[in-house]
Amino acid sequence: MFHGELASIMCGSVFLFVGLAACSFAAVRRRSQVRLFAWIGLWSGMYGARLLLESPSFVAALPQWFQPHVRGVWIGIIYLLLPVATSAWLELAIGRVRIFLQVVISLSLLLGLAGIFAYLRTGSIDTLLPYNHVVSIVALAVLVVIVLVPSLSRKYLALPNRAVVVVGTLVFAMEGLYFNIAAGFHHATDPLTGALGLGALLFAFGYLAMQIALCSERRLHSIENELAIAREIQASILPAGDPQIKNLRVAAAYHPMTAVAGDFYEFIFADSYRTGVLLADVTGHGVPAALIAAMIKVAMQSVLGCAQHPGEVLGNLNRILSPQLRSQLVSAAYLWLDTESRVARYSAAGHPPLLHCRNGQLQRVEKNGMLLGVLPETEYPVVDLSIETGDRFVLYTDGVVEPENAKGDSFGDAKLDQVVHAHRSRQPSEFIEELLSEIRQWQPKTATQHDDITLIVIDVV
């Protein structure tokens, strides 16, 4: 008896192994482009399990506690194979065929669940199985027509390689036709024939799934290369290293959330004693925000003549950028430092406050106008500050205060003030490292960065 069932056991084992391998691959990759692998894996694994459960020799080798449930599992596989197989086709369908296949999935799933329920109540497997066969025959007939007619396959199926699907579908359809005719004439059929038909179709699907996955990988690799170039370009528009300014010690840190970011900072050197510092934060992340940051770099060239007037700098930037920003906005802060006259002037556009530390006392300077891009004509208020040796100014984007701990509490202004006060004697570069370390410790170890972080620390020496 075992030798008579050997072909079924071998085929079932192969289908089950292929199904497990495909599902494992889909689980590891976890991308929408590999969903087809998951459905192929379920389809193949369920068919393999069906062949094995139809073998008395295999069932006899199963644990005693499982053998009473074999028939129920087999019934479940019989009824649920159609919605799983149709879901694999759905991954390749486009247009109205998707609606048709979704109807088939819903109908076959309802029939399957009702058939399983009927089996549990009556013990009969034939209550709804004929209807399930009718649905599968109609679905297969429609799909065969679509695959065989080139104009229809181009319109309703996304096929990287149509020839492979044509061959696989024809072999499977011919096998199905053969089995139905043989059943009508009560002619015995070889289970191996059916396995070969389904194997041909699954091979075609697997080939397509691999082509789709490789195409996705190539596209992803191309995007990564382009992002690497964009990162280099963005790095080139930022100041190279910490600037050397007379009577000032300056350090800056720039940590984008993604390959490219919407944070931007710039130093405007007027002479040995006077310099301007701009810090901007574009709403959003990634490439769109980085493009606007590059626009700010270009726009800065037109405001050099009014660099000593922070309100005019922000007003002119707002007029230049407003027509280009569309739905995005920009927060910005501009600090003008004159160490000869010992005066600082500050203005901001919807930006976190400037921190001014003197003799252990911390002042939060908030002189905010509207975000850049809200209205083309906006006035930005300016505040004058005195400068003394030992003063420290801290400019930052909201990525510094927004990180959350395991309880969901933000790092916040209070924690930032505490760190600024605790490390006020540190050099600017050392202070930045301490602050970034505090932010990392505040977050859970598994947390990822959720916003761009930019810091500029200026000491008056």
Strands, helices and their partners?
Blueprint: H1 2-29, H2 35-53, H3 56-60, H4 70-90, H5 96-122, H6 129-148, H7 150-156, H8 162-184, H9 191-237, E1 244-245, E2 248-255, E3 263-269, E4 274-282, H10 286-300, H11 310-325, E5 330-338, E6 343-349, E7 354-358, E8 361-365, E9 368-369, E10 383-386, E11 392-396, H12 412-422, H13 428-442, E12 453-460
Parallel strand pairs: 6-9
Antiparallel strand pairs: 1-2, 2-12, 3-4, 4-5, 5-6, 6-10, 7-8, 7-11, 11-12
Question: If you had to describe this structure to a student in words, what would you say it looks like?
Answer:
This protein is of the alpha+beta class. It has two domains: 2-224, Rhopdopsin 7-helix transmembrane proteins (Up-down Bundle), CATH 1.20.1070; 241-460, PPM-type phosphatase domain (Phosphatase 2c, domain 1, 4-Layer Sandwich). The protein is 55% helix and 15% strand. It has helices at 2-29, 35-53, 56-60, 70-90, 96-122, 129-148, 150-156, 162-184, 191-237, 286-300, 310-325, 412-422, 428-442, and strands at residues 244-245, 248-255, 263-269, 274-282, 330-338, 343-349, 354-358, 361-365, 368-369, 383-386, 392-396, 453-460. A six-stranded antiparallel sheet has the order 1-2-12-11-7-8. Strands 3, 4, 5, 6, 9 and 10 form a six-stranded mixed sheet that branches. A hairpin with a 2-residue loop joins strand 7 (354-358) and strand 8 (361-365). Helix 6 (129-148) packs across helix 7 (150-156) and helix 8 (162-184) runs antiparallel to helix 9. The longest helix is centred in the middle third of the chain and has 47 residues, at 191-237. It starts with a helix and ends with a strand. The mean pLDDT is 87.
